[in-house]
Automatic annotation (TrEMBL):
Protein name: Mitochondrial copper homeostasis protein
Keyword Mitochondrion: yes
Gene coding for it: COX23
Main location: mitochondrion
Lineage: Eukaryota, Fungi, Dikarya, Basidiomycota, Agaricomycotina
PANTHER family: COILED-COIL-HELIX-COILED-COIL-HELIX DOMAIN-CONTAINING PROTEIN 7
Length: 96
């Protein structure tokens, strides 16, 4: 069951803040390898899993204060957008 503790509204001290996300989080893994590398075929395979985990880890460290993790959310959205664009381009070119 989820915790019913409300998120923190106070900012973290500078030394407790999560390190900013790296540029590598904005680049998706090769989606074909991600899907083929799994033991079972699943629609839930995610080439942006590293960015997703980093954003959830940031929330955990920031006591669920979303304002502290905006950069991580942005990196995940960028990664997801690039991944979807890769898939669209591959379909257009007949490589899917």
């Amino acid at each position: 069951m989820a915790s019913r503790v409300p998120p923190s509204k106070t900012s973290l001290a500078e030394e407790d803040r999560p390190a900013p996300p790296t540029a590598a989080l904005e680049q998706p893994e090769d989606w074909k390898k991600t899907f083929k590398g799994r033991q079972t075929i699943s629609k839930f395979a995610d080439p942006c899993e590293a960015a997703s985990k980093a954003s959830l880890d940031c929330l955990e460290r920031a006591h669920y204060n979303r304002d502290e993790c905006v950069d991580f959310f942005k990196a995940y959205r960028e990664c997801k957008g690039k991944w979807l664009e890769q898939r669209r381009e591959d379909r257009r070119m007949g490589r899917a």
